[in-house]
Structure formats: C-alpha cells, structure tokens
Write a structure and sequence with these properties.
single chain, alpha/beta, Rossmann fold, Ribonucleotide Reductase Protein R1, domain 1, 3 domains, six-stranded mixed beta sheet, five-stranded antiparallel beta sheet, binds guanosine-5'-triphosphate, binds magnesium ion, binds zinc ion
C-alpha cells in the first residue's frame, strides 16, 4: 500500500468495496481502480480521488496483460491512463469456458455469492444443487436466495426447508420484490467493504432485486421483444447505499457449471457422509460391493435424486478434466479413431 493515499481516499476506496484483504495483497505503485464493467476494448473503472470523491474513467487496456480485466478486478492505471496491471484475484466466480479454454472468470474479488433461484414454477432442486456447487467453488460465502416468494402459498417456507436439505450449510433466504420480504436481511449481507455477486438463471429476478434494494431503475421490463422483458447483457458492479457493492450479471445456463470435486462434496455433504462408510475408498457408488450410499438410497435415508444428480455432476467434471488435459484428450482421440476405423472396415462374406 502506498502512503500517497490520504484518509479520505481510503474512505472512497471503501465505497468501492476495498477490503483489508485487498489492501494486504496490493503491491501496485499508484492508487487502485476498480473495474465496473468491461466492454471489450474499453474498461469502465472507478477511482477514489484524493478528496474522497469517486471518479469514473474509461480506460483501454495495455497489450500483453496476463489476464483480461473483469468486473470486480482491482487494477492499476499507467501514466497513459491505460490499465497496465491487474491485481491477483481472491475469490472468483467462474463458469465452464469453451472447449480447450478452461474456466472463464465472471466476477473477481467477491465476498458473497447470492445464488438466485425463483419459486414461481416450484423449487428446482437440480438448479439449487448446481448453482450451489458454483457458489462453493468460488471460495466466497454462498447464500441461497429464493426469489418470487410471493408466488408461493406460504411465503416460500416449504421451499426454504427443502432447499436447506439440498444445499447443506448454506443460508437460505426467501425474498420477494413485490412484498419486500427478506430485503432487510439481504441488506445485512451487503455492508461496507463487501462485494457480492448474483448468480442465477435468466429471469430469476436478479436485476429486480438490485432495483428493490436500491430503489433504482435498471431496466427489467418493456423493450417490446423477448416477451417484453429486458435481459441483462453485461456484468456490472453497482455501488449500494448499504455500503457494499453488488455485481449483476447475465443469467447462467446450467451447462456452464464449472466445478471441482471438492465443491460438489460441499453441496452433497449428506451423500459424502454415507460415502465415508463404503467398503472401498474409491467406491463409485454405482453397483460397487459394500456401497453405503446405495444402501442409504434403498433404505430411503438418501433421496434417489441426490445420487442421480451427484453422478451427473461427477460425469461432467470427469469430462472437463479430460477435455482440459491434452494428453488424456489425445488418448481419447486415438481410441476414437481406432474405433471408427474398425467400424469402417468392410465386412467379409
Ligand atoms: N412475482 C414476482 N415477480 C418478480 C419478482 N422479482 C422479479 N420478478 C419478475 O421476473 C422477471 C425477470 O426479472 P429480472 O430481474 O429481469 O430477472 P434477471 O434475473 O435479472 O434476468 P436476466 O437479466 O435475464 O439474467 C421480471 O418480469 C420481474 O418483474 C418477485 O419478487 N415476484
Ligand atoms: Mg438481469
Ligand atoms: Zn459407495
């Protein structure tokens, strides 16, 4: 941390979500700026001026940056006004990238991930599980927000109880922007020096939550297309009156889950507890002898859907590991070629 930062600019930095961890990690020479939104060639950043006022700046990025700046990044501007360094990131929200490109960072330096799951069409267990895996994977605190609770008969009470079983150890909060339910509790998560990102499918009500929290007016309705709804297309950081900052990002598709086995075990803690009792340490819970997980499904102690969904996630992780490991992929291609050659070989007789 440089001593050129005055106490007032420290207060300004706090408005941008500057936390003690960021301060400890910062070894830039100038003042840190925070990326509000990255438009591709132009990065909108905010700086805390010496008088404590926040200054908007549109910056291009210097060539050969090791990482593309994303919303939430702390960056350093050069004398030319360009972004010339990106600070190392603490917790990051990622999703599966295109083949061969590894995970893609959607938000950097976050403290809390709000997984926003709507209740208007009933609680979607698979969605809760998959978003929770992404939440745990980020390294930030995951919180499950059940939106549109006004569309249930009991303010989302039953769904809250069900969600607590689907995502053990994660706080669950039913909310509604129509009735205001849960918004005050939500604000307590969004205090000064915190950065929060909202993660959920398109239409879950993320931007509506931002508007309800702030009394702001980010477009969520009426542009005449796509059923009259305005869908968020950029990842943008918003400064909240509660003191924290909130990142609104476009809806995520379930296939974009990027996760490790550790994060899956966090979400499937009930299954993982039974797995401890399997006869073999590397039990696949798939017809193996002495499997305590399958036994628990038979006795009804573990819902069958949990095992099914766990298997699906494991399968996806294994697929991604192969895809991202070039030698494994080369082996698969070689095998594949051999198989297809055989198939093409003309039959005798
Ligand atoms: N009944 C009810 N409807 C809501 C609530 N919150 C949001 N909606 C409606 O849900 C629709 C989608 O809301 P958005 O806030 O745009 O959803 P989003 O998650 O930001 O969607 P993307 O930007 O596409 O990711 C809008 O028509 C909102 O009016 C709620 O608490 N109750
Ligand atoms: Mg939105
Ligand atoms: Zn087993």
């Amino acid at each position: 941390m440089t001593d050129t930062l005055t106490p007032t600019s420290q207060a300004g930095l706090a408005r941008l979500g500057w936390s003690p961890t960021d301060e400890a990690d910062w070894n830039g020479h100038g003042a840190p700026a925070r990326v509000i939104v990255n438009h591709g060639s132009i990065c909108e950043v905010m700086l805390a001026g010496a008088d404590g006022r926040l200054v908007h700046h549109s910056a291009t990025t210097a060539p050969h940056l090791p990482a593309t700046p994303v919303a939430g990044d702390w960056v350093e501007l050069g004398a030319d006004g360009r972004v010339h360094a990106v600070a190392p990131r603490r917790a990051v929200l990622t999703r599966a990238g295109a083949a061969g490109s590894g995970p893609q960072v959607m938000a950097a330096n976050i403290d809390t991930v709000l997984m926003v799951v709507p209740l208007d069409a009933g609680l979607n267990a698979r969605m809760v599980e998959r978003l929770s895996v992404m939440g745990w994977e980020s390294g930030a605190q995951p919180v499950l927000v059940l939106s549109k609770a006004d569309r249930t008969h009991d303010e989302g009470a039953d769904d809250t109880a069900a969600a607590e079983l689907l995502s053990p150890g994660v706080p669950v909060l039913p909310v509604s922007v129509l009735t205001g339910q849960g918004l005050d509790t939500l604000r307590t998560w969004l205090g000064p020096g915190t950065t929060t990102v909202m993660l959920g499918p398109s239409g879950a009500g993320k931007t509506s939550l931002l508007n309800a929290l702030e009394g702001t007016d980010e477009a969520v309705t009426a542009i005449g297309r796509a059923g009259g709804r305005h869908t968020t297309t950029t990842r943008r950081l918003h400064l909240l009156t509660s003191g924290g900052v909130l990142l609104d990002i476009p809806g995520i598709r379930s296939l974009e889950v990027a996760a490790s086995r550790g994060a899956v075990d966090d979400v499937f803690a009930d299954l993982a507890a039974f797995a401890q009792l399997c006869q073999y340490g590397d039990c696949g819970h798939d017809g193996d002898g002495g499997c305590a997980v399958e036994e628990a499904v038979h006795t009804g102690d573990l819902p069958h859907a949990r095992l099914v969904n766990w298997r699906k996630l494991q399968g996806e992780i294994a697929y991604r590991e192969r895809r991202e490991d070039p030698t494994a992929m080369a082996d698969i291609r070689r095998q594949w070629k051999a198989v297809s050659k055989q198939a093409r070989r003309p039959r005798r007789g």
